[in-house]
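Interim report, section 4.2 (structural modelling).
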Amino acid sequence: MALTKEITQDRIEVVGEFKTVQVRTKTAVMEDGVELSSGFHRHVVTAGDDYSNESAEVQAICVAVHTDSVVSAYAAHLEASTPE
Amino acid sequence: MATTITGTTIDVGPNKLVANSAGNVGIGTASPAKPLDVTGDIRTSTGILFGTDTAAANTLDDYEEGTFTPTASAVALSGVTAIYTKIGRVCHMQLDFAFGSNTRTAAMQILNMPFSAIGNGNCSLGYTDSGLSNIAWFWQGTTIYCYDVNNGIKQQQNFSGKTIRLGCSVEVS
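Predicted structure of the assembly:
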């Protein structure tokens, strides 16, 4: 009866015009391979964010979708939509 | 030819799967009180519809609870409790925190919401320390912004040490 903890990024989504990357991290407690309980933690990576500390999979997605044009467009959107 | 059994209870298990004479089926229970009575979790691949509804948009097909880790621009946060519940396309979050000491003069922003919001969602203020007046917060994109309720201008009050609770429901991507 060995208890183990498994942490996985079980859902990575690219959403919206500015390709926000939504990452769901699942922490599961397992007993002999059978899941006893689990919980979710979420974070997002927006265009222009530093993603160097993200997982290899998230980094690869960010490289693909956070192009210079998307980063510029998102920065312009923030500038335009945020109250003065 | 179908086989019909009447006036009895079929029990596979025991009590793993029960069908009684009232037409109730139980899974994990010996005495199902409803047409389908399950002791334990239910998993469905596409969702649940209620009543006579057949609209795909009304299918309960997404429910999630979890935590997230907010940050503030150039200000440390302490005592953070940040939870969310997402049902369908709407996310509700509740956020408790205290601002660390700071001399920030730019408008206050809380970053790293759990989802990217579609449009804006106004936050309700559960409580706030005295000294913060006429402020409100809204969730836009992945950020919560603070503004003056009187004129919509971004707030630049001194948030040092202030404790705040925010709640917000917003449509998310």
